[in-house]
Amino acid sequence: MTGPVPMAQTALLIADLQNDFIHPDGAYGRAGQTAPEIAAILARVKPLADLIRSKGGWIVSTHFTLVPGRGGEPVISPHLQQLRPFLAKGDFEPGAWGHRLVDELQPADFTVEKVAYSAFYMSRLEWVLRKADIRRLIVTGIVTNGGVASTVRDAHVRDFETVVLSDGCAAFSPEVHETAIAALRPVARIATVEEMLAEFGP
User: In principle, which of 82, 92, 118, 202 could form an S-S bond with 150, CB 3.0–4.6 Å?
Assistant: First the structure.
């Protein structure tokens, strides 16, 4: 299939913009793990999310998940436990407030639980995208060098047309973000929110 991808086959893919990551009362906020660049994403991306919805596109939200195990204690990978020792029972728990997409970008058409950096790894994301006949992904979220980069690379090898919003993604430092964006140029188009708003029209 050739030619421009119609909006009906386009999705805003929101990577992990969850209360536990973003909200001051979430797991990361309580631990002081925040960055102004991350907080700024929501207001910047909201007009694009609203425009995509109004034109018949899709909103797909991926949700980092700590699967509850015995006694409700979360199953946490050793590398993550070392990196984020503050994570505890109830954090990123499926169905909990912290696990949900932030209010500013609600509602999503599809929500997909993920257990690793890439939202495609052992999840139903590809199944959902194929069933909805989605061919183009506009990617926003966190963190640029982690979940965003891994998901974008996996989308590339699956032949999805992918656009990464350079100002719609963020990391815990601007330098890390810029390095990650530069590294994604071979596998995705890089664009700003304003560029996509202009391209999709009023």
Answer: 118
